[in-house]
Amino acid sequence: MFKKILIANRGEIACRVIKTARKMGIQTVAVYSDADKNALHVKMADEAVHIGPPAANQSYIVIDKIMDAVRQTGAEAVHPGYGFLSENKLFAEALEKEGVAFIGPPASAIEAMGDKITSKKLAQEAGVSTVPGYMGLIEDADEAVKISNQVGYPVMIKASAGGGGKGMRIAWNDDEAREGFQSSKNEAASSFGDDRIFIEKFVTQPRHIEIQVLGDKHGNTIYLNERECSIQRRNQKVVEEAPSPFLDEATRKAMGEQSVALAKAVDYCSAGTVEFIVDGDRNFYFLEMNTRLQVEHPVTELITGIDLVEQMIRVAWGEKLAFEQSDIGINGWAIENRLYAEDPYRGFLPSIGRLSKYRPPEERHTPEGAVRNDTGVFEGGEISMYYDPMIAKLCTWAPTRAQAIEEMRVALDSFEVEGIGHNLPFLSAVMDHPKFVSGDITTAFIEEEYPEGFEGVTLGGDQLRRVAAACAAMYRVTEIRRTRVSGRMDNHERTVGNEWVVSLQGESYPVRIEADHDGSTIHFDDGTKLRAASDWVPGMSLAVVDIDGGPLVMKVGKLPNGFTIRVRGAELKVYVRSPRQHELSLLMPEKLPPDTSKLLLCPMPGLVVKIDIEVGAEVQEGQALCTIEAMKMENILRAEKKGTVSKINAGAGDSLAVDEVIMEFE
Asked: Which runs of E-coded beta strand occur in 481-534?
């Protein structure tokens, strides 16, 4: 077996590979840019080599720099992770020339299937059902518009070397095709060093289901069932699960066998994924083959018990697969949520900064349920603007889908992140959404269910009462602590009242608390009552409260006369006041937010790519005003209403902070 491998990647996937290598007794080498000198993968590896400036096209995707690191450390093999050089045949060839093993498929398979255009042509030649489209290279925006009209709108504009949602745009008309072509081309060049673009028909109401394949160098290839990846935003996966709640056994078998046949056609070995669009009648169409490890591979590992990274290493060493197709089953259900550094209340725009608090739920694996968190960050670390905004992949497993969803709900509520914007509230909302719970989902789920963007969660009446009861009991504990500190009376409980009014989410609940040594009974004025018990004490940022025998997990912050609470996707201000304090609070005027209707504010930290208009120009609703790049994604900012530009405060090349004024209107 290899004694030392180099991981040509960063972040959570580099950490993931290091964990398996350590388990196998293999030493590891990390590579890092200036931005990653204090990164977790650097701390975890046995050795680390600096490879250049923060920009990926000056560090992580420069083959010569990776090869220099291989030579310096004497690494015998390289695991590329995903993204960066993972599907670059020149990199695989450079390693082969150097006598270093590539922990992935041969360069010929990468060339055949890693390139989206070539792979679709090969699939068509092999008789595989594919989505209609234009597989030739597209020279400019005019040609993109012409082809889009020939294929028929809507179309998907995709980078040939793309992945992870980068270099992908959906166009519904000529203007969007023109804009999308240029943005996709720019993103592809920046992220992959390859700006080739192709266009295919965008199938409406599809489900995105992929098959995990695994092959060795001895001609053995199997499939490890499927993953459903239909919950996507901007063509980037957000929630994945295994197996799919939609497939039947016959469709699973047909998709798996077709995937294996395609892999064998190109002499594929290692772990790869064949992606399909599946319609409502379970007809499936080949999209592409990813010749690398997928981000969502943990859910497959959780239902099969197979460590895919370990298998990739063993295949690269030359071992035969230790199992056959008949050995592969489906054990339980697994769900993965991607935790991103982004602000769901600002259209999911990227967020950067320091993680002032980062405390994931405790990992565990029992016959009743499991929690797994693949991450590449740590408390106090920086989220950089240079790379993908994913912070972690939170996974849960349980014997049934319903149980796995409930495990995920509790795990999300238990996840503490502070210092940056993050999508935990949105993920919680998805886990509670009736369509997701029923399995009735398509790739249009987010677009259809959140057409105006994510505006937070409104808790139902029963859940709201549970939160109110918990906060009433917690506030009583806070008041007891306060009277002890003040030393007002020896018998401190006599100074704390039993009558309170809990106000949250526009509702107010008069309550009476009966406390004993084991907890509190909260009586509501309509006669209902709830029993609350917890070991929470003031200062704890996470409260686990038992409400009538059911757990309620809440992220807790301080407020005068109350708490800030995050629970099940809702972010609440909860006030607990005496009846007289509540009466007086109703007389207080509400503070109105400042008027920013005549300003274009930068919605995220980023770089100005271009300004599309000039001072004095009249703009129409929806007109493009400027383009901001953040985390390698281009974002076009548009006018929300008609107006005239009175002042422009930024230009191309400027780096802007969040809420910095870009232009003003009159």
From this structure: 499-504, 507-516, 519-524, 529-533
